[in-house]
Amino acid sequence: MPFKSKAQQRFMFAAEDRGEIPKGTAKRWAKHTRSIKSLPEQVKEAVMSCSSNFQKIAEELKKYPPVTAEEKMTIGLEAAKDKKLKGMSPAEKRKHDVLKKNNMFARNSTTASTAS
Q1: What values do phi and psi take at 103, rounded to 5?
Q2: SS (H, E, C) the chain
Q3: Phi, psi dihedral angles at 41 (to 5 degrees)
Q4: What is the pLDDT of residue 71?
Q5: 3, 11, 46, 95: which has the fewest Cβ within 10 Å?
């Protein structure tokens, strides 16, 4: 999110130093700002209220535990599978299910034959 004013920029860097917002947030906002020199000194109060909303969101996010790499992988695989199935016609889905079922039977039969 880009800065809307120089005052907002000063506030964000100061709040970051005080630990009120996560480290790196102000730099990330600065990257998204086209021209810091052309920013107005201040803007209307309605625009500045977004920084307080951001603080509320940051506080809410602190309540949730971080996601492990294994959970991210599982979520990503499920999303990829859903995306793949979403674009298929009903006939293609049936064909996919049959192939998946046959593949599972093939795997089970080879593991059973190697086990005996």
Answers
A1: -65, -40
A2: CCCCCHHHHHHHHHHHHHCCCCCCHHHHHHHHCCCCCCCCCCCCHHHHHHHHHHHHHHHHHHCCCCCCHHHHHHHHHHHHHHHHHHCCCHHHHHHHHHHHHHHHHHHHHHHHHHHC
A3: -65, -45
A4: 84
A5: 46
Residues whose CB is less than 8 angstroms from the CB of residue 85 and which lie 6 or more positions away in sequence, other chains included = 93, 96
C-alpha–C-alpha distance, residues 43 and 48, integer Å: 7
CA distance 96 to 102: 10
pTM of the model: 0.38
Paired tokens of 70: 């294994």
Are 22 and 59 in contact by the 8 Å Cβ rule? The answer is: no
